[in-house]
């Protein structure tokens, strides 16, 4: 396994931060209040890891047993709210909320990049934890995919949208590619304490996702059924 014991937690916490940022923007776009935004951000950033840990029997799950997970999610949410409200006027509350929402829409590109990084980070962290629990390469990559997409599914359901993994540009495919690449590199020893393989796999996963959005790539869709 990877020599550095801090790598799995580091990847997880970076993924939690990126996912909370994307979740906070989703809450802002839906016009939720502060509590609603926090719920969306925390659920989307911790959901995938909780599903992963439950599936492999790593209990109590890290998101509950390690205080850093919730703290990072809370900090990321606070950072988004601070940035989006920095230029908020001192007018009435309703007008202020509308200004925050408008700013959130203008920052959609940041949310997209955050979501792509979330996909890459959780794909690798999920795969790594599965390998540490002695799962074969292919199954480990599948678990990495579940980790990467699980939080996004929770987020989309909570904001009453069809989960992105089911209906938009390639989403699960980049996560699986990144997880499988990392698993193969790690198993064959082409790593520097895991960091090189992890960084490369995260970047490749995020890049495939962003190019898929840019080029509007989709999986084949069947014709409409009468």
Automatic annotation (TrEMBL):
InterPro entries to which the protein is assigned, alphabetical: Gly_transporter
Q: Which Pfam families match?
A: Gly_transporter (PF03458)
Compartments (UniProt record): Cell membrane
Q: Where do the Glycine transporter domain residues begin and end?
A: 10-81, 113-186
- What keywords appear on the UniProt entry? Cell membrane, Membrane, Transmembrane, Transmembrane helix
Keyword check for Nucleus, yes or no.
no
> What kind of membrane protein is this, topologically?
Multi-pass membrane protein
- The residue ranges crossing the membrane are 6-28, 35-55, 67-84, 110-131, 137-158, 170-186, 192-212
Q: Which family does it belong to?
A: Belongs to the UPF0126 family.
Q: What PANTHER family does the record tag this protein with?
A: INNER MEMBRANE PROTEIN, UPF0126 INNER MEMBRANE PROTEIN YADS-RELATED
Name this protein carries in UniProt: TRIC cation channel family protein
Source organism per UniProt: Catenulispora pinistramenti
Q: What's the source species' lineage? A: Bacteria, Bacillati, Actinomycetota, Actinomycetes, Catenulisporales
């Amino acid at each position: 396994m990877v020599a550095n014991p801090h790598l799995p937690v580091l990847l997880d916490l970076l993924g939690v931060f990126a996912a909370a940022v994307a979740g906070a923007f989703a809450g802002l776009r839906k016009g939720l209040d502060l509590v609603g935004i926090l719920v969306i951000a925390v659920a989307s950033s911790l959901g995938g890891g909780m599903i992963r840990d439950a599936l492999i029997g790593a209990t109590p799950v890290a998101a509950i047993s390690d205080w850093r997970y919730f703290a990072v999610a809370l900090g990321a949410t606070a950072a988004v709210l601070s940035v989006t409200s920095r230029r908020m006027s001192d007018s009435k509350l309703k007008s202020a909320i509308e200004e925050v929402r408008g700013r959130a829409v203008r920052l959609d590109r940041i949310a997209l990049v955050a979501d792509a990084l979330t996909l890459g980070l959780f794909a690798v962290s999920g795969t790594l934890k599965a390998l540490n629990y002695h799962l074969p390469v292919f199954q480990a990559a599948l678990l990495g995919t579940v980790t990467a997409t699980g939080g996004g599914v929770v987020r989309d359901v909570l904001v009453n949208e069809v989960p992105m993994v089911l209906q938009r540009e390639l989403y699960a495919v980049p996560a699986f590619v990144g997880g499988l690449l990392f698993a193969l590199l790690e198993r064959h020893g082409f790593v520097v304490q895991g960091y090189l393989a992890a960084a490369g796999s995260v970047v490749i996963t995020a890049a495939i996702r962003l190019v898929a959005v840019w080029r509007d790539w989709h999986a084949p869709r069947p014709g409409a059924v009468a």
